[in-house]
Write a structure and sequence with these properties.
By secondary structure, the protein is of the alpha/beta class. Helices cover about 30% and strands about 15% of the residues. Strands 3-2-1-4-5-6-7 form a 7-stranded parallel sheet, with helices on both faces. Helix 1 links the parallel strand 1 and strand 2.
Length: about 220
C-alpha cells in the first residue's frame, strides 16, 4: 500500500445517505490540489456510493459488509452506532489494520457511529480530525469541524479535549467549487423572478419514506 498523508473513515448507505461521503470527497480534492495524498476507508454497506471514491481517483480500502448487521443500539454507545453495522471494536481493528500499512499523518473521521472509545483505540499513531454536527458524543481528537450555521463551542466543550482546535460555522463549509463558481449567476437569476419550483433534498437516503409524505 502507498503511504498517504490523509485517510478518511466515512461510510455511505441507504440508511446513512451520501452527504458524509460527498463532503469528505470535497475536502480530499482540496487537499489533493495542494499536493497531499488521500485514501479512504469505507464499509461495503447496502446502497453505498464507494465507487465515487475510485472514480475521483482516490484509493479505497473497503471493509466487508457484516453478514449479521447491528440491530441494537447499546446503552453505552451513541444513538447512531447501528450505522456501523458491526461492533465498534471490530470496526476499529479493521481500520487500524489499514492505518498500520498507510501510516497517515491525519485520520479524518466523518461518522455518527464513531466516538471517543473507537478514536482512542485507533488514533495513537496519527492526528485525528472529526467532522460532526450533532454534538451528542465524546471525541478524542486534535481538530473538530462543525460547519453548520449556529454551531457553537459551548456544545462541544465537555465533549472534546481542552487542547482540541475547533472550526465552527459556515465559514468552514465543505462546498464543492461549482457552488462558488455559479453563485453570482444564481443570485442574478433571482432578480425579478417568481419562484415556481423548489427542490427538497434528502441527502441521498430516505429509509423512512419521508419523501412520499412531503409530496
Amino acid at each position: 500500500m502507498e503511504i498517504v498523508d490523509y485517510v478518511f473513515r466515512v461510510d455511505s448507505s441507504s440508511k446513512i445517505g451520501s452527504g458524509h461521503l460527498m463532503r469528505c470527497l470535497t475536502l480530499a480534492r482540496a487537499l489533493r490540489d495542494v499536493g497531499a495524498l488521500c485514501s479512504f476507508i469505507c464499509r461495503a454497506l447496502d446502497g453505498n456510493l464507494n465507487h465515487l471514491v475510485v472514480s475521483e481517483g482516490f484509493s479505497l480500502n473497503e471493509l466487508a459488509h457484516s453478514s449479521v448487521g447491528a440491530k441494537a443500539v447499546y446503552e453505552d454507545e451513541p444513538y447512531h452506532s447501528y450505522w456501523r453495522e458491526v461492533e465498534w471494536k471490530i470496526d476499529a481493528a479493521e481500520t487500524l489494520s489499514v492505518l498500520s500499512a498507510l501510516k497517515p499523518r491525519w485520520l479524518i473521521v466523518d461518522h455518527y457511529g464513531i466516538w471517543h472509545d473507537w478514536q482512542v483505540t485507533v488514533g495513537s499513531g496519527c492526528n485525528i480530525m472529526v467532522i460532526d454536527d450533532l454534538a451528542d458524543r465524546h471525541h478524542q481528537c486534535d481538530l473538530l469541524l462543525d460547519q453548520n450555521l449556529g454551531s457553537d463551542i459551548l456544545g462541544y466543550q465537555s465533549l472534546i479535549p481542552s487542547d482540541c482546535m475547533t472550526l465552527l460555522g459556515p465559514d468552514y463549509a465543505l462546498l464543492r467549487p461549482e457552488f462558488k463558481d455559479y453563485r453570482e449567476v444564481s443570485l442574478a437569476r433571482r432578480v425579478g423572478y417568481e419562484v415556481n419550483n423548489i427542490l427538497i433534498n434528502f441527502g441521498g437516503g430516505d429509509p423512512d419514506n419521508y419523501i412520499a409524505r412531503v409530496l
